[in-house]
Amino acid sequence: MSTSPIKVGFVGLSNKGWAATALAPSLLHPRLQGAYDLVAVSTTSEASAQASAEKYSKDFGHPIKTYYGDSAKIASDPEVNLVAISVKAPYHKQVVLPVIEAKKDFFLEWPAGVTTEDTKTIAEAARKQGVRSIIGLQGRHSVAVIKAKELIASGAIGAVKSTNVLAHLGRDTLYWPPVVSEAKNAEYVHEKKNGASRLRIPIAHQLDQLTFLLGDFISVSATDALLYPVGTVVDADGKPTGRTVQTDVPEHYSITGFLKSGILVNAFWRGGYAAGEGTGRRQYIWEIDGEEGTIRLESNASLAAFPALVEPDLYLNGKKVDLATQGNAVESISVAWMEFANGKGDYATIEDAVKHSELLDAIDRSAREGRRINL
């Protein structure tokens, strides 16, 4: 790890939201002591930038510079080595390209653009300018996932032949219909064009974990269904506001395919149902079947089907594996930051984002055309 800290300028860091609850705290993780320092923030307005700087100046123990508006301003700061970007997907490309043009390394939240064309444009620019990238696919650094990778490599379950995923995003999450919270970007996540659908966010995060452990897809088949096209919008107390929201985002996906290794994949995602203990409905189960045994990652937390957020329990041949540390999103992100600082490791890059976006396009195309797509 470098003896001098990587100086970070952060675009989109406010007092709340994902960047505030996970990304910024991860930079202060004990394993990263001396590796990173936050030196500047940039938001959409002068007032929000100042509020952010005041908060994080206290957290990081020194004054933090403020910028607002065009990301080129923070990118041109000679003190900034790396620009971290956490804004909504439709703004990814326009925010990150000036950063790359300034020849600054960057962190970009997944999905790294709305379309594969966006992602490829970002990747091409990064290659041209010779800058390094890190993408917000922290789930591959989950404590349970890393342990599962070790078990597979050790031969604990023999040769892996198939894998199965069963996941549910219940109506109680309030992100997608039939019930949605007015505080959770109700309109933003309900249109495919915004790049924040179930497929592009939670399913993609799980597919990153799956391919990280078992290898890339060579072919895929998919069926999707939109059974809840209208959602009731509720307030912070869960009371209907009288508004509804339309969606074109399917909540059911059946995905099958083969990996390059010959492993058969079968994944079924569903959403919209009640998810309380009384239903007995399982929220997230991922089984990896080898010839001599099986690994299972499982959780019944309400957000378990967001595997980059919730740490599952790990089982080997039906017995729970005691993990050395308690995993969570901040823990996982800090591992990615550490690997990036060291210049080696398994952290996701913009090239991984391109690969995953192409896979998601194939899933969409297969569901639309009713046929297997080769990758």
TrEMBL record:
Residues annotated as domain Gfo/Idh/MocA-like oxidoreductase N-terminal: 6-135
GO molecular function: nucleotide binding; oxidoreductase activity
Residue span(s) of domain Gal80p-like C-terminal: 145-299
Source organism superkingdom: Eukaryota
Keywords associated with the record: Oxidoreductase
Signal sequence interval, chain numbering: none
SUPFAM superfamilies to which the protein is assigned, alphabetical: Glyceraldehyde-3-phosphate dehydrogenase-like, C-terminal domain, NAD(P)-binding Rossmann-fold domains
Gene3D superfamilies: Dihydrodipicolinate Reductase, domain 2 (3.30.360.10), NAD(P)-binding Rossmann-like Domain (3.40.50.720)
Protein name: Gfo/Idh/MocA-like oxidoreductase N-terminal domain-containing protein
Originating species: Agrocybe pediades
